Amino acid sequence: MRSSQPVLLVEDDTIDAMTVQRAFRDLKVTNRLVHVRDGEEALEYLGDSSNQMPCVILLDLNMPRMNGTEFLQIVKDNSFLKHIPVVVLTTSNEERDVTESFRRCVAGYIVKPVDYCKFVEAVKTIDLYWTLSELPGEQVRDTRKVAEAATTDRDR
What we know:
The longest helix has 17 residues, at 116-132. The protein has helices at residues 14-27, 39-47, 68-77, 95-103, 116-132, 143-155, and strands at residues 7-10, 33-36, 56-59, 86-90, 108-111. The chain has a 5-stranded parallel β-sheet, with helices on both faces. It is α/β, with parallel strands linked by helices. The chain has a single domain (7-155), classed as 3-Layer(aba) Sandwich (Rossmann fold).
């Protein structure tokens, strides 16, 4: 990916998270992969001013505590976080999940392939897209405001 910022992986399944890590390694993706297990942990990460903001979020939908749809609603309603591209990477091919995700302005929706080679191709496509995409210049943000906004939105 063009940015040196980390990629935030929001995924509760350990095997799926290890598969993403392996695909990053096999593809030599240089971005650090930060793994959290659900939407609550993702908001905590995004709200911690000591953490670097991710260049993209890879989001599973079906998770405990706070699922991907709930997380997506909070992020996209937050003026400091909504600019972070989110790609849904999930096992769900339900039309309502696809529709709801795009209604919440995701950058993409990919159903996780079961076959590892196809999974690597999916990750390669994500990497290539975010390498080639032109994005607006990075905003200079006060990270304390990001942390406050993430906490405030989560508590609503």
